[in-house]
Specification:
Elements (H helix, E strand, L loop, with lengths): L19 H21 L3 H23 L7 E5 L1 H4 L9 E7 L5 H16 L4 E7 H10 L1 H8 L2 E5 L1 H10 L8 H19 L2 H5 L10 H15 L6 H4 L5 H25 L8 H10 L6
Parallel strand pairs: 2-3
Antiparallel strand pairs: 1-2, 1-4
Helix pairs in contact: 1-2, 2-4, 5-6, 8-10
Length: about 290
């Protein structure tokens, strides 16, 4: 049975300015419950989505209690893996704070306090604060920015701003399908050169290595850009994958997510390399035994 983490990160009773230790305690309790569910065999796909929901709740609570920028002037947006609603315990929480126009000094200080609180809670935040025009320029120059925005998810603030950045950085505006594919293909070639050697074959990088999670994400990115797909299962409707192929892909993702979850929980940090030091412990946790 799946148990949600919402009750352990319920922040409604804490008031506008709870002490930092109490917030840390609530977050630690949520992490501990996730660890117990992992040990009990809950599906990794449910755990990574629940972890993202926990961080959603925490961010929205802190945003509403510390940021007074008018809603129509700013949007708080999750991007990257967090934008997909997939978060491992040690993963970066990637945020875009999208502005209608440059902020006043007072509002800049509010944003700074908001981000400092997240760092004080030991949440690894990757963030950018940009106007709509700045974000469009960055997405045109850098395919990584454009890719992150493809998986953007609105958290708070102006929905109109959010919709504008999605529309103005889509394939109709920049990085059309073929150009996007060619750039991502070159990225993959470079990544394979880095991670496909003797060391990484024995101690694989479950996210970046050949056959790892990044390859599954690549399929999703290219499909979204080309077909306008919103989920990997949409590729079945577009006859890019058969139902059987899709199921195999999801089984592989579930396994890799479980390995990555195990690494993060075992080490207490973002560790995506299946080093020899961890292989035996994880194998035992997964029920593998010597024959």
């Amino acid at each position: 049975m799946s148990h949600h983490l919402n009750s352990l990160i319920d922040l409604t009773e804490l008031g506008a300015a709870p002490p930092l230790p109490l917030l840390k305690q609530r977050l630690a309790a949520a992490t501990e419950q996730l660890k117990q569910r992992f040990t009990a065999g809950d599906h990794a796909s449910q755990l990574v989505h629940d972890r993202a929901q926990v961080i959603d709740q925490l961010l929205l609570y802190l945003w509403s209690s510390h940021v007074t920028i008018p809603n129509d002037a700013v949007a708080l947006i999750a991007v990257g893996g967090y934008g997909r609603g997939e978060l491992h315990p040690g993963s970066d929480v990637d945020l875009l704070i999208l502005l209608h126009q440059a902020l006043s000094e007072h509002h800049k200080e509010e944003i700074s306090r908001f981000l400092t609180l997240l760092w004080d809670l030991k949440i690894d935040v990757g963030h950018s604060v940009r106007t709509l025009a700045e974000c469009q320029d960055e997405a045109e120059r850098d395919i990584t920015v454009a890719t992150n925005l493809m998986e953007a998810r609105h958290l708070a603030g102006s929905l109109a701003l959010f919709n504008s950045i999605i529309a103005t950085t889509g394939p109709a505006a920049l990085w059309p399908s073929r150009q996007f594919f060619e750039a991502k293909w070159q990225e993959q070639i470079a990544r394979y050169r880095k991670f496909h050697d003797a060391v990484y074959n024995l101690e694989p990088h479950v996210k970046e290595g050949p056959g790892g999670l990044r390859d599954i994400q690549m399929i999703g990115w290219v499909a979204k850009r080309h077909f306008g797909a919103t989920t990997l299962h949409d590729l079945v409707y577009h006859r890019f994958l058969t139902e059987t192929e899709y199921c195999s892909l999801m089984e592989g993702q579930e396994f890799l997510w479980r390995v990555r979850l195990g690494l993060h929980l075992l080490t207490g940090r973002r560790e995506d390399r299946l080093l020899f030091d961890y292989q035996k412990t994880l194998a035992q946790q997964f029920g593998y035994h010597d024959t």
